[in-house]
C-alpha cells in the first residue's frame, strides 16, 4: 500500500471558493507548500488567499478565476501551470454543479454545464495532470463524488448519474495506476451544510429535498476524513457512521426494490403543496 504524505505537497483545488473546496484549502494550508485555487468567483478566492497566507506565511497561494464548464479554460489552466513551472502532485477535483427537479423540465443549458463540470472537467484535468505525477512517481487524486452516485434519484437524475461516473472512473484509473506511485480516492459524502443545495434549487425557490439531520456531516469532518483516507490510500470514503451504514445497505438492496421505492418517492413529491 502506498501512502501519500500531505506534508510538502503542491495542490490544485477546483471549486475552492465555497463549501467543501474552501475547507480543503483551509485544511491543506497546514501541510502544503503551495496551492492553486480555482473557481468562478475571483473576489472570494482573493479573500481566501489572504486568509490562508495569514494562517501560514510560508504557503504560496495562486488563484485562477475560471469557469470549468468551458473546456478551453482547462487547457489554458494546464498551459499556465507549465509556464509557471508548477508541478502539481495533489489534485482535488471538487467543483460540481447540481440541479433539483425533473429532467423533462430542466434547463438544457444547465444540464450541459453540469455534465461539463461534473464529468468532462474532472476527466480532463485528471488526464492532463496524470503524466507529470507518473513521471515523478508521486501523486494523489481526490475526486469528490457523492453518495447520490450509488443509486438513481428521481428529481436529481443527471447529478446522481454524473456522480456515478465519478466513482466508477476513480476506481478504474486507481487500478490502472497501480505501481506508478500515484493514488486515487473518491469521496462520497451524504448531506453537507453548504451552498450547494441552495444553488441547485431552480430559481432559488422554496423547493427542498429533506434529509434526516442524523445523516448530516459537518464540512470540517468531511474534509478531515477525506484527507485521512487519501493519506492512507483508501479507494473510497463515506464520511459519517449513519451514511456508511445507509450506503452499505443501499448497495445490498436489489434494483427492483429501489425502483419501487423511487416510484413511491415520486408520487409523494407530486402530492406535496407548491
Helix content: 40-55%
> SSE order in H/E notation?
EHEHEHEHEHEHHEHH
- The total count of strands amounts to 7
* Weakly predicted, low-confidence segments: 204-209, 267-274
Arithmetic mean pLDDT: 88
Tertiary shape:
globular
How far apart the termini lie comes to 52 Å
User: What strand line-up does the widest sheet have?
Assistant: 3-2-1-4-5-6-7
| Beta-strand residue percentage | 5-15%
Number of helices: 9
- Radius of gyration, in Å, reads 19 Å
Major sheet, described briefly? Answer: 7 strands, parallel
Q: From the structure provided, what is the oligomeric state, counting identical versus distinct chains? A: single chain
Class of secondary structure makeup: alpha/beta
List the helices and strands and how they pair.
Layout: E1 10-14, H1 19-28, E2 34-39, H2 42-55, E3 60-65, H3 71-83, E4 90-93, H4 108-136, E5 139-144, H5 157-176, E6 182-187, H6 196-200, H7 219-231, E7 236-237, H8 241-252, H9 255-270
Parallel strand pairs: 1-2, 1-4, 2-3, 4-5, 5-6, 6-7
